[in-house]
Design brief:
The protein is of the alpha/beta class. An eight-stranded mixed β-barrel has the order 1-2-4-5-6-7-8-9, surrounded by four helices. Strand 4, helix 4 and strand 5 form a beta-alpha-beta unit. Helix 8 packs across helix 9 and helix 8 packs across helix 10. The structure holds ligand C2E and magnesium ion (3 copies). This is Diguanylate cyclase.
């Protein structure tokens, strides 16, 4: 870096750094018009209960088809949208579109929508959710908002009030990516989550035998069971991982093994390895 070069040299940007910055600002520019151009779509990934026979929920995952770059991952464009504050409009589009699709699914299947912590400070967020529900006719009890631990750090009276109002509408909350952040257990009873989702990397470590990860999963499961909260193991790619996590007490599962994110939820059963296996037996 510049400071390693000693006095007298002045390096403002490494070329790679400049490229990254330019890339980011061009992404930002394209993001601004992507909504109007209809470049976003939604894939749905199942969350199954127990042995995988029952889909309890589909999680909506945003996809951006960029005209030159092709499919851009949400891991790339969501942070950009957050930084330039487009996330509120993007999130509102997501809520409206996903609720209206989910309204035509079977009544006992829920819809989970990811919500950035930043959106929770948008003064219109409550109204956005209420309008998405009203316009689609989706029963509010079927909507789950996936929040992350970073919300806990931002928690203030206003956000507490918002969570309360959302709950009054009938909406519930899942704690996403548990194990990725600072993973403190002591706020879980305060926030009234109906589900805790254990992050993929944590699940894969626990399933591979990491005793440390297993101990944390067991602790979270014990707490969740006493509060009647579902625990989902994310990122299940193999049957053995599902078994290992079930043994640790997880009662819900999500991952490529049970079903990849896909456009059409009705095709899910055909593309799910465990369901196909059982149908063939
Ligand atoms: P997430 O909410 O934790 O979603 C799970 C991610 O893991 C998805 O990636 C999914 O495709 C991937 N995944 C699921 N099962 C497996 C598996 O078995 N193996 C592996 N390797 N991966 C698996 P995706 O769709 O790329 O989304 C990445 C993240 O972007 C999401 O993580 C979420 O944090 C964020 N995101 C996606 N859509 C939205 C959105 O509409 N709003 C907001 N705020 N964030 C979103
Ligand atoms: Mg999620
Ligand atoms: Mg997750
Ligand atoms: Mg995750």
């Amino acid at each position: 870096a510049a400071k390693d070069r000693g006095r007298g040299t002045c390096v403002v940007y490494e070329p790679a750094m400049r490229e990254k910055l330019e890339d980011r600002s061009s992404l930002e520019k394209d993001l601004e018009s992507a909504l109007e151009k209809g470049q976003f779509s939604i894939c749905y990934q199942p969350i199954v209960r127990d042995n995988g026979d029952e889909v309890m929920c589909f999680e909506a995952l945003m996809r951006w088809k960029h005209p030159e770059r092709g499919i851009v991952s949400p891991e790339i464009f969501i942070p950009v949208a957050e930084e330039c504050r487009l996330i509120d409009r993007l999130g509102a589009w997501m809520l409206r579109a996903a609720c209206s699709e989910a309204a035509s699914w079977s009544d006992d299947v829920k819809l989970a929508v990811n919500v950035s912590t930043l959106q929770m400070s948008d003064p219109h967020f409550l109204q956005t959710v209420a309008q998405a529900l009203a316009a689609s006719g989706l029963n509010p009890n079927r909507l789950v908002l996936e929040l992350t631990e970073s919300l806990v750090l931002e928690m203030d009276a206003q956000i507490e009030q918002l969570l309360q109002s959302l709950q009054t509408l009938g909406v519930s909350f899942a704690l996403d990516d548990f194990g990725r952040g600072y993973s403190s257990l002591n706020y879980i009873d305060k926030m009234d989550f109906s589900m805790i989702k254990i992050d993929r990397e944590f699940v894969q470590a626990a399933a591979a035998g990491s005793q440390r990860s297993q101990a944390v999963v067991s602790a979270i499961v014990a707490l969740a069971q006493s509060l009647e909260i579902d625990v989902t193991a994310e990122g299940i790619e193999q049957e053995e991982q599902a078994k290992a996590m079930a043994e640790l007490g997880c009662n819900c599962f999500q991952g490529f093994y049970f079903g990849r994110p896909q456009r059409n939820v009705r095709q899910f059963a055909e593309n799910s390895a465990p369901l196909a296996k059982r149908a063939a037996a």
